Every structure is written in structure tokens, then in C-alpha cells.
Amino acid sequence: MGKRHINSFGIFHSLPVDEAATRSAVIQLLEEVRQYRQIGYIRQMVNVTHNYAPRYHGATHLVSKPTEQTAIRNIDKEAELQRKSELLDQAMNGLSSTQREVIERSYLDDEREYDFISCGEMGISDRTYRRIKASALKLLAIAMKLEVFAEPEDRRATVSVHEVG
């Protein structure tokens, strides 16, 4: 007897989840983390050039601090990428070994392979590979809270009617 696959997504079918948008959000995060792990974070540099044109300001008494703003942006972005990487590691620990291998081969390896090559190396069919990949992406979306909820049809109709008038 073969392994029995349990559909763990039965409870989530009642929620209005936009599957395409959720999938693209997970893939975008995976790509961001792959780039961060591969090359790290490339810090932005400050462009300080003198502008001899007069700048007329009102009485705002605000001081522009581009160096400070850039330094804060660099630190915040690097901390955010580190947090995303750690969150992905935690979510990947919740996957089965096959699902983890499929996600790593498809999205996280430095030299990503085509799916049909990975199928052959893993010894599974293309259809099974795609099914495992789709279920792993759904689990990652749930674990990392990246679900994109769709608006119900009746809400969209009322919103569009009110927006016109």
C-alpha cells in the first residue's frame, strides 16, 4: 500500500484566499531570501553633490539629513531581510523532507535547475513534483502569514457602486 496523502487544507477552503496572489507573495519572499543569502545586503550609498541653485523654503525649520536617513534605511532593511530569512528557516522546518528538497531546488539553490531535471534526480514524476511544490508553497504561506485574502463578490460590487458616485 502506498502512502496516504491527507489534505490538510480542508479548513482553509472556506476562507476567501486569492491563491495566485498568495503564491506570488511566497515566491517573492523566497527570491528575496535567496538573494540575501547568496550575496548579502548591498548597502545604499549617499549621493552628496553640491547644488548651486538657490533653494527657497518656507519657514518649516526642518533640516534634511540624507546621510542619517540612508544609514537608518540600510540598518532597517538588513534587519528585515535577516528576520525574513529566520522566519523562512522556521517555516521550512515544518515541511516534510520531500517538500523541503523541492522548495530548495526550485527557489533557494544558488544554481536553480529546471523542474524536469529536479524531477529526474529525485525519481518522481513531473506531476507529483508540481503537486508537492504547490502544497509546500501553501504551507509556507500559512506558516509565514502571507495569505492574500480576496474580497467576496458582493463586497466588490458594493464597493464599486459606491466608488462611482
Describe the structure.
This protein has 165 residues and is mostly helical. The protein has helices at 19-39, 66-93, 97-108, 115-122, 126-143, 153-164. It has a domain at 18-40 and 66-147. The protein contains 6 helices and no strands. The longest helix is centred in the middle third of the chain and has 28 residues, at 66-93. The N and C termini lie far apart (62 Å).
What does the secondary structure layout of this molecule look like, with pairings?
Blueprint: H1 19-39, H2 66-93, H3 97-108, H4 115-122, H5 126-143, H6 153-164
Helix pairs in contact: 1-2, 1-5, 3-5
Task: Considering the chains and any ligands shown, give keywords for the structure.
single chain; 165 residues; mainly alpha; elongated
Largest β sheet strand count, sense and barrel closure: none
Mean pLDDT: 79
The value of Rg in angstroms is 23 Å
**Uncertain stretches of 5 or more adjacent residues:** none
Strand content: under 5%
Q: Considering DSSP H and I runs of 4 or more, what fraction of the residues is helical?
A: 55-70%
Would you tell me the structural class of the helices and strands? mainly alpha
The counted number of beta strands is 0
Order of helices and strands: HHHHHH
Compact overview of the structure:
This protein has 165 residues and is mostly helical.
